[in-house]
Amino acid sequence: MTRRGRLAEAGHQARLPSSEPRPHSGPVRTCVGCRAPGSRSALLRVVVVQDLLVVDVARSMPGRGAWLHPDPGCLELATRRRAFGRALRHAGPFDTAVIAEHLESQMHHDAG
Ligand SMILES: [Zn+2]
Fold it and tell me: Which segments carry the region annotation Disordered (predicted)?
């Protein structure tokens, strides 16, 4: 049982080119869950509003933001590592229910 194997199953960071330049890929952020880099447009921006984690859909809310793949596995990893607390400079604990719901609705949307 390796973490590497588990991450490979998620698949979304498996196709990163190792050496090719990507001139127009835009700003790169790091997912607070799996710690893999991703383009700003591919990651969700998560902010804290009164101890509640919410998705900053427009990526324009003020204050600190944490970046997360739209993947329940990444949400779980981030929660277990208390990565949101570090990224958002907030002691927590946080309620991640809103984020989880958002991910679920996105998945259903994509599937349909
Ligand atoms: Zn991730």
Answer: 1-31
- Walk along the chain (112 residues) in steps of 10 and give the mean pLDDT of each run: 53 57 76 96 93 93 95 96 94 90 82 56
Assign 101 to helix, strand or coil: helix
CATH 3.30.1230.10 fits 28-111, yes or no: yes
Cα–ligand 1 centroid distance for 51 (angstroms): 22
**Is the peptide bond prior to 62 cis by the omega test (within 30 degrees of 0)?**
no
Residue 39 CA to ligand 1 center (angstroms) comes to: 11
The domain locations on the chain are: 28-111
Q: What is the reported pTM?
A: 0.72
Residue 112 alpha carbon to ligand 1 centre in Å: 23
Collapsed DSSP state (helix, strand, coil) of residue 43: coil
